From TrEMBL:
<feature type="domain" description="PEP-utilising enzyme mobile">
    <location>
        <begin position="536"/>
        <end position="606"/>
    </location>
</feature>
<dbReference type="InterPro" id="IPR051549">
    <property type="entry name" value="PEP_Utilizing_Enz"/>
</dbReference>
<protein>
    <submittedName>
        <fullName>PEP-utilizing enzyme</fullName>
    </submittedName>
</protein>
<dbReference type="InterPro" id="IPR008279">
    <property type="entry name" value="PEP-util_enz_mobile_dom"/>
</dbReference>
<dbReference type="InterPro" id="IPR036637">
    <property type="entry name" value="Phosphohistidine_dom_sf"/>
</dbReference>
<dbReference type="Pfam" id="PF00391">
    <property type="entry name" value="PEP-utilizers"/>
</dbReference>
């Protein structure tokens, strides 16, 4: 069922050739089904390219489940967000689709009263609650860091007897896997303990200013809360510091002349100054290089390495900073300038307000600035540190299972669902316990082989952008502020679809005005962090979305265009901090714009024009 005014039904989307039966890869509750057809066919679904732009591995479904439940519970049941419940999820052809669930109109008044009292308590005590929050999350990080998965011993050490441990290694292995997964679920409770009330505070500020100044731009409002000083920028700051230290020690040429990390580090180890720099590099790695490189949500998949896994990524950035230092360029963000501009803009608009509104403005802008730090900073603690550690421990487990004969290859484990991994673990522990042979490898071998083939077929076909009827109004804060999915952007997607269906070329893309300014230049289409090395000074970055692992490119590009993202997305926030024009949530920029095409990015209006 399609028309000019709606997207295709999810029940009309067929599986790619050779991928029939893909449903077995995912949990049944994540799938569209005839029993929910009447409901789901009337909902607007969009592919979550911001967090999960790639086909999901079965094991990696854990990541989706973590935020699905937590976001919904804190929106719907804990804080009673007035306009919306949670964000529902479905998997179709391996891609994740989401839809905001509106609260019943008759409940809005009661929910608003509850939300005002509950969120108000958090706002009044934000600093102390945030400090407690960090303690809770870092405790979770410490807990999973201490988990160790190794092949089970032939004979238990004597300490089990003489220290009266009373537990076998096999039991602890089963327990530790359960704790690993459960700790990630717990972490996501904390993730959404603060995130949506933070977005709500910013949205309230946004609406307050917009009601009094209807013609004000989104970026102007956003610039009133800029000038972040948060740990999220610390990894990039550490790379800049290492570049300066390399020049001070006189080993900058060694970095620039090396062709790969191994040759660079070997050359550095040959001199006292080089060894001193290497020591600093190694100390800096943990935790500041524990940065995921996913093209979407940091840590959303096990397949993407961290900076620690791929030192070529941070090393290339250090080299670039050395080159720019030698050219006499300023490599630091102009935080002082952003703060000065923030105070100028907010001061000018404050003066235009009625005296009765100024007190409310002062309170609401201060709250928005307070919660804004968390909105960016939590990404480092959870999306990077927690998920990087979780995936590393999961890979340790997959190697241990393989060594014990439960799997043929460590990667096989990631084609099993979470509960299937638990079954496999029990099988191998039971066999170890009785001196038998685990059944896992023989049982899973044909299943994994089939799933791997299906997975590759799913990857070969891009997902549909959206499905179902566009809603009359989109007002769920998370959807608007982070994804950039608004009533206007959905209308633009429909217009683009009509244009391409008629065989016409798309020459103008409209998205969210993420960061002010206008720039022209050659497009550099980048889909993964590994392709960032192709970016040249003055290019315009065109990408699905960015994450903190991309932060080092913002010192080179002239502007940024992303397929997804809202005014509070990472791309928009960082571009404002770096003073770069940005259009986010442009829909199909990566698929429409060719590498090297000259384009104009108007970050004031949210318009991208293809000039060639």
């Amino acid at each position: 069922m399609t028309s000019d005014n709606r997207f295709p039904s999810p029940f009309d989307i067929e599986a790619p050739e050779g991928a029939q039966g893909w449903e077995q890869l995912y949990n049944w509750y994540h799938l569209f089904g005839e029993d929910r057809r009447e409901q789901d066919e009337q909902r607007f679904w969009f592919q979550d390219r911001l967090h999960h732009p790639e086909v999901l591995h079965p094991y990696d479904e854990i990541q989706c489940e973590c935020w699905w439940q937590a976001l919904g519970a804190f929106n719907t049941r804990v804080f009673a967000m007035p306009p919306a419940f949670g964000v529902d999820q479905r998997v179709l052809n391996g891609y994740l689709y989401v839809t905001p669930v509106p609260a019943p109109p008759e409940d809005l008044a009661a929910r608003a009263e509850l939300f005002g009292r509950r969120a108000g308590y958090y706002y009044e005590n934000w600093d102390s609650i945030y400090a407690e929050w960090k303690t809770k999350v870092l405790a979770c990080l410490d807990r999973i860091t201490k988990i160790s998965f190794e092949p089970l011993p032939d004979i238990e050490p004597e300490s089990v007897v003489f220290e009266r441990t009373g537990q076998s290694s096999g039991y602890r292995m089963i327990r530790d896997f359960s704790d690993l997964v459960q700790t990630m679920y717990e972490t996501y409770q904390y993730h959404f303990e603060l995130l949506n009330v933070g977005y709500a505070a910013y949205l309230t500020f946004f609406q307050f200013v917009r009601e009094r100044f209807p013609d004000i731009s989104d970026q102007t409002i956003s610039r009133m809360v800029g000038g972040l000083r948060v740990d999220l920028y610390r990894p990039d700051d550490e790379l800049k510091r290492l570049a300066r230290e390399a020049e001070q020690l006189g080993i900058g040429d060694v970095l620039l002349e090396g062709t790969d990390p191994a040759s660079v580090f070997a050359a550095l180890d040959a001199t006292d100054e080089g060894r001193q720099w290497r020591t600093d590099w190694d100390k800096t790695k943990d935790p500041w290089f524990l940065i995921n490189t996913d093209p979407g949500h940091p840590g959303a998949s096990h397949v993407h390495p961290t900076w620690i896994d791929e030192p070529a990524i941070p090393l290339a950035t250090v080299k670039e900073y050395v080159r720019r230092l030698r050219a006499g360029e300023q490599i630091d963000r102009d935080t002082a300038g952003v703060l000065a501009e923030r105070d100028r803009i907010s001061g000018e608009y404050r003066e235009l307000l009625d005296p009765a509104d100024r007190t409310a403005f002062d309170q609401i802008v201060e709250l928005a600035r307070t919660v804004f730090a968390y909105i960016e900073e939590h990404v480092l603690y959870i999306e990077h540190w927690m998920w990087a550690t979780f995936w590393a421990k999961s890979k340790d487990l997959s190697r241990a299972l393989t060594a014990m004969g439960a799997l043929d290859d460590p990667e096989d484990m990631f084609f099993l669902r979470r509960t299937e991994v638990a079954e496999t673990l029990y099988d191998v522990v039971a066999a170890w316990s009785v001196g038998g042979t685990p059944r896992g490898a023989n049982y899973w071998r044909p299943i994994v082989e089939q799933r791997r083939g299906i997975y590759e077929k799913l990857r070969a076909q891009p997902p549909v952008l959206a499905m179902g009827p566009p809603p009359a109004e989109i007002n769920e804060p998370f959807t608007v502020m982070l994804w950039g999915i608004t009533t206007a952007s959905v209308s633009e997607w429909l217009a683009q679809r009509r244009t391409t269906d008629q065989g016409e070329k798309v020459t103008v893309l409209r998205g969210v005005a993420g960061s002010p300014g206008v720039a022209e230049g050659p497009a550099r289409v980048v889909r993964t962090v590994g392709e960032l090395l192709t970016v040249q000074a003055g290019d315009i970055l065109v990408c699905p979305a960015t994450s903190p692992s991309w932060s080092t490119v913002f010192g080179q590009v002239a502007a940024t265009v992303s397929d997804v993202g809202g005014i509070m997305s990472h791309t928009a926030i960082v571009c404002r901090e770096y003073g770069l024009p940005a259009v986010v949530g442009a829909g199909n920029a990566v698929a429409t714009i060719r590498d090297g095409q000259r384009i104009r990015v108007d970050g004031d209006t949210g318009v991208v024009t293809i000039l060639d």
